[in-house]
Specification:
It contains 11 helices and 11 strands. By secondary structure, the chain is α/β, with parallel strands linked by helices. The chain folds into 2 domains: 83 residues, Winged helix-like DNA-binding domain superfamily/Winged helix DNA-binding domain (Arc Repressor Mutant, subunit A, Orthogonal Bundle); 202 residues, D-Maltodextrin-Binding Protein, domain 2, CATH 3.40.190.290. Strands 3, 4, 5, 6, 9, 10 and 11 form a 7-stranded mixed β-sheet that branches. It has a two-stranded antiparallel ribbon with strand order 1-2.
Length: 303
């Protein structure tokens, strides 16, 4: 009997007798004595009420009733052994955990995750999504893609996508677009992404400053506000107003014409999404390499 196999008592015993052709050979395979195997067979025959094996001069032969029991035992043992092997294989599969925010995970990573799985089918990928990267994220993840500044991450990370922002809206709104970005902002409604404290990313106020626009887009009646970027983008695609689109994050939506650019692009070169390593494992290195390659392949990736 192979070490660690689940003991199925009489079912495995019948299977081994059929495979080996004799009680003594089955006993040897199962690590039992021949008398112990004979006793178990007799006990089973007593319980079922009929003979399962015919004892021959050399070996044994299953009776018709024994064959019916053997068919059940064969299927059950094969199914349980197969399940055990698959569970053991799954336990040995390397797993890499990536910490990132909701916007990157839902709008950038998930639409592309099949490409990583095709390249590395042996690796299980787990996403740990939060609004902002916590101080102790390494307790839950092997590496992170985090939004922030060079001052926060340049010493320990690589810039994947610098912050480049452009107003976006649903194609249905383009027919009524006013001339110029100022007119767009004044027409509204604007869709805002709220932050708990001071916004670590471009909001409509800082976007207008970066674009050199003399207008105050804050505290306007009729605007929409959400605390997650996925909801901001959903509202924009639904024609609810104008949102700020992070190039790199919304590229596929722009290419699919689910959103259209509707204003001037503003860039912050030392701020954006950073790849931050937390583990030196092989699976983490493979995921990091894939993230770098995938973002570099975008026209909006870091230089």
């Amino acid at each position: 009997m192979s070490e660690g196999l689940i003991d199925l008592a009489w079912m495995r015993l019948l299977v081994e007798v059929d495979r080996r052709g004799s009680l003594s050979a089955a006993a040897e395979a199962l690590g039992l004595s021949q008398p112990a195997v004979s006793y178990q067979i007799r006990l089973l025959e007593q319980r079922v009420g009929f003979q399962l094996l015919q004892r021959l001069h050399r070996g044994v032969r299953f009776t018709e009733e024994g064959r019916r029991f053997l068919a059940i035992a064969d299927r059950t043992v094969a199914d349980v052994d197969g399940l055990q092997r698959s569970l053991r294989a799954a336990r040995r599969r390397p797993t890499v955990r990536l910490a990132t925010d909701y916007a990157f995970s839902s709008l950038w990573l998930i639409p592309r995750m099949h490409a990583f799985r095709q390249r590395h089918p042996e690796i299980d990928l787990q996403i740990v999504a939060t609004q902002r990267l916590g101080q102790h994220w390494r307790e839950d993840a092997d590496l992170a893609v985090a939004f922030g500044t060079a001052g926060e991450f340049s010493a320990q990370g690589k810039l994947l996508m610098p912050e480049r922002v452009v107003p976006v809206c649903a194609p249905a709104l383009t027919g009524s677009l006013p001339r110029g970005t100022v007119g767009l902002i004044e027409a509204g409604p604007l869709i805002h992404l709220e932050a708990d404290n001071l916004s670590p990313w471009l909001d409509w106020g800082s976007y207008c400053q970066g674009a050199g626009l003399r207008t105050d887009p804050l505290d306007r009646p009729g605007d929409l506000r959400f605390n997650t970027y996925a909801l901001v983008i959903q509202a924009a695609m639904g024609g609810q107003g104008f949102a700020l689109g992070w190039l790199g994050i919304v590229d596929q939506l722009l290419e699919a014409n689910l959103l259209v650019a509707a204003g001037r692009t503003v860039s912050v070169s030392d701020r954006g999404y950073w790849l931050v390593n937390g583990s030196e494992g092989d699976a983490a290195r493979l995921l990091a390499t894939w993230l770098i390659d995938e973002t570099a392949g975008s026209s909006h990736g870091a230089d």
